[in-house]
Amino acid sequence: MAVRGKARAYGNIALIKYWGKRDEKNILPMNSSLSLTIECFYTETEVVFDDSLNEDYFYLNDELQDKTTTKKISDFIDLFRKAARINMKATVRSTNYVPTAAGLASSASGFAALAAACNHATRLNLSHRELSMYARRGSGSATRSIYGGFVEWKKGTNEEDSYAVPIDDAKWDIGMVIVIINSKEKKVSSREGMKHTVLTSPFYKAWVETCEKDIKEIKLAIRDRDFERLGLITERNGLMMHATMLGANPPLSYWEPDSVLAMNVVRELRRKGILCYFTMDAGPNVKILCRLSEANIIKNKLKEFFDEEQIIVTGPGPGIVLL
Ligand code: DP6
């Protein structure tokens, strides 16, 4: 016997960052976060539970993955096997769709798509809220990729109430321009980087306190469709996350010279009246929040400094889709 499920999930970029866990096992964050789901990058995953299999197999972009990578997927699928009371092994086939060979590979779209595919295959009929909690167990940022548009991941008080909620569909001239500075795999993963920051940065307490305020304010900005306020909070919050890392011991930095160059282009554009704001994650790439209608002006300016292939324009993306 075999049962099959297939789903697509889109990537997301945090405007209020998730950086630090209070519970490593259940992936409970120190602070609530808020992101924009983007349409330029998504993952499609098929899972087939089959009682003739003796072990799990995981193919990523058609390549069979090693034991360590497969173990992470198996542990995640175990959550569904347990809930659905099945013990069939599975074959998982995942494909990342990226606009260029940018290596924007994302655990967010990956675990959200896998959660949705497992739900489909096991007929568990989980709600989006429940699915977001399952996705969370794979990777924190995956919690938010269940929904489209602006999404909040509520930090909650325990593993049953730390989930994502949709805030706004973002269909009001919102876009992003992503500058790929370096597509190589990062030296320090988000998981290690945030743990190190929580343990060693004296700025960490201030970070958590600031996020409490920022999340309230950014939701008001979204409600009022106040793009300038939205952007200013985004840019400041992202910089503050990186400041907590610079304060870690030893310090941690994901920036490269070209990251700073891209940030300065954004500041220059702003001086000329184009409202755009940057944010960065656990890598050197720079993501620019802008009016979708002005994205090409920003792209053209960036082309003076970067190759065209390094610049990706995207609109807001939707939530998970069953295939
Ligand atoms: C900087 O979700 O990749 O992108 O929960 O350990 O898998 P784990 O971490 P992950 O961290 C994302 C960190 C970030 C900010 C964000 O997306 O909120």
Do you know the CATH architecture of the largest domain?
2-Layer Sandwich
Please count the helical segments. Answer: 8
Largest sheet: 8 strands, mixed
Q: What fraction strand?
A: 25-35%
In the CATH scheme, the class of the largest domain would be Alpha Beta
Shape annotation: globular
Element order, helices and strands?
EEEEEEHEHHEEEHHHHEEHEE
Weakly predicted, low-confidence segments: none
Helix content: 25-40%
Mean pLDDT: 96
Count of extended strands: 14
What is the CA-CA span between the terminal residues?
21 Å
Rg on CA atoms, Å: 19 Å
Q: Can you tell me about this structure?
A:
The chain has 323 residues and is of the alpha+beta class. The protein folds into two domains: 2-170, Ribosomal Protein S5, domain 2, CATH 3.30.230.10; 174-314, Alpha-Beta Plaits (2-Layer Sandwich), CATH 3.30.70. It contains eight helices and 14 strands. The chain has helices at 67-84, 107-122, 128-138, 190-200, 204-223, 227-246, 257-271, 295-302; strands at 2-16, 21-23, 28-29, 33-50, 57-60, 63-64, 89-97, 150-153, 164-168, 175-179, 276-280, 286-290, 311-314, 321-322. The strands form three sheets. Strands 1, 4, 5, 6, 7, 8, 9 and 14 form an eight-stranded mixed β-sheet that branches. β2 (21-23) and β3 form a beta hairpin. The radius of gyration is 19 Å and the shape is globular. 46% of the residues are buried.
